[in-house]
Batch of 3 targets.
Target 1
Amino acid sequence: MKCLKQKLYDKIEQHRPRTKRLAKEFGDVVVDQVKAGQIIGGMRGIKSLITDISYLDPYEGIRYRGYTLPEVFEKLPKAEGAEMPYVEGLYYLLLTGDIPTQEQVEALIMDMNNRRIIPKYVWDVVDSFPSESHPMAILSAAVMSLERESLFNVKYRHGISKMDYWDPTYEDATNLLAKIPLIGAYIYNKLYHPEKGHRYPDPTLDLGANFAYMMGKEAPYDDVARMYFIIHADHESGNVSAHTGHLIASSLSDVYYAVSGMINGLAGPLHGLANQEVLRWLQGLKEQMGDKVPSKEEMKKYVWDTLNSGQVIPGYGHAVLRKTDPRYTVQREFCLKHLPDDPLFKYVDALYQVVPDILKEHGKAKNPWPNVDAQSGVVQWHYGVKEYDFYTVLFSIGRSIGVLSNIIWDRALGYPIERPKSITTDMLEEMVGISK
Ligand code: HAX
């Protein structure tokens, strides 16, 4: 049996001529046009990035290597008795495009378990933060501190060939992916449950089960962790976190710099932090209502009050999607099966009944439907992770799977340093025909 790295090498060799041919023979073919509105509107919709790891269709949602989320959940190997697949299997799929066998995933789990040792200075970095610090700031700093371990940097200093950049990058990426859940769980225990202390990983467990174990959670939290990391792994390349990771790595900064930057981008309330914002916003509604479950009219009023005060409804809308996010649906189905009577789930479900119509009437949001963040806090809350500041750390662990896979392929295909062109307002006014 070929190990993941050998299989990846074969795939890279097969793919390289395609990229080379596109660049050499078709470099001048026009594939998109840029409108002035896109330049001042956050580059929305401009086709200017390339990735084969995932593709986001506005109406269908995300596909990983061509597979929809339900297909991913159905096809990837699972631990005995588990409802959700191994996270390691997803990493294998994202890197190679192939669904791994049980044996291939087990070999990868063993490999990753051997990469879990974390130098003491990382714990010291985490411990040195004040307890009021946001866990995303701590996670970013802890990942950054690991940069010292980069194999890519050592090889680069010794003069490695461009064709081989992907190899130490794969080593760095797999090392970081093995370690980041430990850092996340350590931050959780330190900030919120210092009395319990930190649990070191169990080498017999896979990434999802290990995370549950380190968080001090029983089943089915292992499946919750697997589901959570898998649905958050990738959303093609243009979103803030994925793009930041790619951009930083394009200057040949190593994966530790890139993933730390990715985490910083994810920490914004319009992106990953929206999952904590949903919970904060819902708690506000619960406080207003006392113990009473709000009526539909009261719910509508709360939504309108939020909009009228100039704020966004967290967990709704999307820059690309134009329908309910399948990542929302996966979690909703999990909730319907495992926690149908959870009071918070009922709130979120009731919101689903009122928010889209209100956003349509409000008339601004291009997509009135819920995104991944509308539902994810509910699941965590139900299983006792009520410290909602922590939710984006969970998102970061998941997102690192896609970002790292992309960076390995960026190196393999030799994509250059990213450098779009900017213009001044004067120039844009002139281009659109505004006379002074
Ligand atoms: N509530 C109220 N107004 C909204 C809205 C929402 N949920 N979503 C969009 N709008 C508004 C925008 O603020 C914008 O208003 P202005 O014209 O006054 O600036 C207008 O509708 C048009 O925006 P859009 O084109 O539909 O959306 P964008 O591509 O600009 O932004 C966002 C996409 C996800 C940032 C946006 O929908 C939003 O702010 N949603 C709430 C925050 C959220 O849930 N973020 C998480 C998104 C998923 C994700 O990345 N997870 O990590």
Target 2
Amino acid sequence: MEILTMSLKNLRDRIHRRELSAAEATTQFLTQIEKWNPRLNAYITVNERALDQARAIDRKLATGEDVGPLAGVPMAIKDMLCTKDLRTTAGSKILADFVPPYSATVVERLENSGAITLGKTNQDEFAMGSSSETSYFGVSRNPWDLDRVPGGSSGGSAAAVAGGLACASIGTDTGGSIRQPASFCGVVGIKPTYGRVSRYGIVAYASSLDQAGPMTRTVEDSALVLEAIAGRDPRDSTTAAQPVPTWSQNINKDLKGLKVGLPKEYFLDLLTPETRSAVDKAIAQVRAAGAETVEVSLPLTDIAVSIYYLVATSEASSNLARYDGVRYGHRADFSTEPARDLAEFYCRTRGEGFGSEVKRRIILGTYALSSGYYDAYYKKACQVRRLLRAQFLEVFSKCQVILGPVCIAPAFKIGERISDPLAMYLNDIFTTSANLVGIPGMSVPGGFSAQGLPIGVQLLSAHFQEQHLFNVGAVIEEAMAIKELPNVLQ
Ligand code: GLN
């Protein structure tokens, strides 16, 4: 049991010192998966080669060969990331049988660092959602309360770490999909600066917003994983040529001289009292660590969600045009009733392959991009996006970190919101800005509700200033780091 709740750093060090073999650690996680995945549905696919990977690491360790910084660490990968010879579905029927011939750069870098791939985690279809309920493979459950969602879209990645079904995982975040599930499941999740992490081999949802990042038990672990996956990649021209700092070795919990901004628009009456109190507690902690807090203002906050749903759906409508049933992915059965023309071929294939949320977004995005509406919707959204960016840059001239809630409330019940897309979209009020502006954001556990549900606190910083997030995150988690598995799973 201890292994399942150990920090990545501890586990890695124990494996490195050969007090524990990578195979043993991997076996423990695989056993937990076998026991709990039928309930949690955190994984869509378990990697049958995981144990072989672990044994290869053990052999290297035995001969004193160089092993990477994540050697032997059993990890879970969101099903948005291509894994060579391992099924990658994006949570969709249209990719239900897709086995990629190559791996995403993130996966390649993790494996080169010695990490073990346990499997591919459940998610909302094409990462469109906040609850993991839009997955073709069924909803994933929150390990803290099996009747509740783990959040989304990286719900399976969050549930896997929280439930001890992986030591750490990778999620993707286009409008909050790492931070919100991290908050709902009590793990640390970071969306890096846009361009920090390569998008090569990651199923594209909204290319100007998508970013992959770590989901871990501790802040330090989050830094360790990000160090392994970040950096320039010639195969993704949007990656930045910035050097990758060794954040994990520079975590400084003395916050003297740091200014932490509290945007007044983030402290709405809408927040549940428990969310408010978790954020207040975090504010007290950063002050106790020497930081000064200042009130700031982000007046465009309430329209960030509208901008996001125009930009994201527009990009999605273009990105998802590639799923046509011709070269790969699901194709409708035309054996008894052949298609009359190409349009019908596409219609039947796409009609069967995509779920209703994905269809809704393709329609929305196509509308926003169509002639006559483009100027009023897509172009206007891009203009306001620039203003939002300017607003954030202005705020970052007054403080280095912004602190606030991740969500209005803790995890909601399965089925509670799925039939009301607008209510679901409004969930994203505090998270979408970071993607629109390109800045990094972290969710760090800040407390529990009376019902025992985790509540995350959000930290934002200026572009490429992730170190601030690790420093402040480390202060907040000190009081809160969740060391146990949820009761239900014990
Ligand atoms: N909840 C948001 C959406 O539904 C965010 C998704 C994401 O970050 N991938 O689009």
Target 3
Amino acid sequence: MKELKVFTTVKEMQAYAAAQHAAGKTIGLCPTMGALHEGHMTLMRAARKACDVVIASVFVNPVQFGPNEDYDKYPRQFPADCEKLQAEGVDAVFHPEPQEMYPEGYGTYITVENGITDVLCGARRPGHFRGVATVVTKLMNITRADKAFFGQKDAQQVAVVRRFVADLNLPVEVNMVPICREESGLARSSRNAYMSAEEKKAALVLSRSLRAARAAYEQGECRAEVLKKVTADELAKEPLAKIDYVDLYTYPALQATDNVTEPCLLAIAVYIGKTRLIDNIILG
Ligand code: PAF
């Protein structure tokens, strides 16, 4: 089995990436914050299919967490992550320290200002997408990515990345990989590790509520208000669930709409105990 290369400095990572391009190879980037699970592996596999060289990044990006969020307790398990990446045949992993990415004097941030960061998680987590856009731009530059791979679970993040990649003329193809679910229906997430067995069972209500909405849509229901109500009513049946939002917007423009007449994102954020989970489906 080929060995996974580990880079912790920007200089080394860029030199490796430049050498791959010089050898005529294409680079696929899978940005992650680590605590890798099967969902991340679906990104690696998509990148492997589409590119000669696969680079994963493992970096818990401080700039995308709010002051009362879980930056400190976010699971960090780099040795186990490396084992998974190696077993998957990933070529290299970029794992910098925060000071390497944001050295003293750092002062440049990317903000997407066309409204798509004002809704859903953008509205609840001020500054979150500014942090994501900044780090993803840096990661694309550092790894010289030709293609980048993101999961649909963070569908708003994918819309934001597509927007700034187009706006800044970055030469990177952005790919969205379908949500990876456990057999139970629960969308895989590093944050699932925060939940007790009882909470994990309660969390199945997220995918159940979205399935109920999809069933209603497939039976001809197109009204956004009704589809949101079907979802919220199902969520309300679970006593451990506290709704943060249930919303429906056109996708990827994330414009409000009364009816599903074009692709639309039905997205939910729900607290199960102290754990905030997100999930979504695309209708239309
Ligand atoms: O989706 C994530 O894990 C993060 O937001 C990302 C894209 C790795 C940026 O830190």
